Amino acid sequence: MKIDSGTLLFIGDSITDAGRARPVGEGGGLGGGYPAQVNALLGATYPERKIRVLNTGISGNTIRNLVSRWQKDVLDLKPDWLSIMIGTNDVWRQFSGTNNPDSVFPEEFEKSYRELIEKTRPTVKGITLLTPFYVEPDKAQPMRAQMDVYGKLVQKLAKETGCRFGDTQAAYDKALQSVAFSTLAGDKVHPSPTGHMVLSRVFLKTVDYRW
Questions:
Q1: In whole angstroms, what is the distance from residue 121 CA to residue 103 CA?
Q2: What pLDDT shows up at residue 92?
Q3: In the 8-state DSSP scheme, what is residue 61?
């Protein structure tokens, strides 16, 4: 497995937040989502590595919010490994009202995301970028189609900056071939425990975790 030791930090929106403790989620305060699941799996499988897992996800965040708090919630914590999943709110706000000023369109999303990666890449051993997702099987549905645009931008950024890439949307699409969306995320955005385990598996695959 690529994560040999040190601190692993997860940052993102409500999907990452999942009720974590403040100011920084750790241990029993990681929340009820995939960061806590990953922590449990790493601790059970690789206890000798003593990997410390932190969570600084905040509900409602867009890439714009990450820019404003990056120093405090990422760089100051000095992680060795970083996982970023952002974009759901950037897209959702484009569908939540006419000319919502909190919408983040593709050009700004890509530019801001790239700047954060380039600022952070020299300070860490590895970065994983996870796509935003919408648990909707109809790829022509407008919000799902726009989410796929952002997912492709994340894939492009990972390739161009040397980050690891995890396609969460593809993983949900595979699961949707067998189960209803409500099994994974009742509102198509916030995962159930099973839906969070889908995310955990995607992340762990990017770091070559062995079960």
A1: 27
A2: 95
A3: -
Please indicate whether residue 190 is annotated as part of the active site. Answer: yes
User: Is the bond preceding 106 in cis, omega lying within 30 degrees of 0?
Assistant: no
Residues whose CB is less than 8 angstroms from the CB of residue 48 and which lie 6 or more positions away in sequence, other chains included: none
Using CA atoms, how far apart are residues 179 and 41, in angstroms rounded to an integer? 24
Residue 209 near residue 202 (C-beta atoms within 8 A): no
Can you read off the two tokens belonging to residue 30? 């990681």
Q: Looking at 103, 190, 196, 200, which residue is catalytic? A: 190
Answer yes or no: is pLDDT of 30 > 90.
yes
Pair 2, 126: CB distance under 8 Å: yes
Per-residue pLDDT tens digits for 88-135: 999 999 998 777 888 999 999 999 999 999 999 999 999 999 999 999
User: Residue 187 catalytic?
Assistant: yes
The catalytic position among 76, 138, 178, 187 is 187
The single residue of 13, 14, 112, 167 carrying the catalytic annotation is 14
3-state secondary structure at position 96: coil
Burial of residue 49, with CB atoms counted within 10 A of its CB: 0-12 exposed, 13-18 middle, 19 or more buried: middle
Please give the average per-residue pLDDT across 144-158, as a whole number: 98
> For residues 44 and 196, what is the distance between their CA atoms, to the nearest angstrom?
18
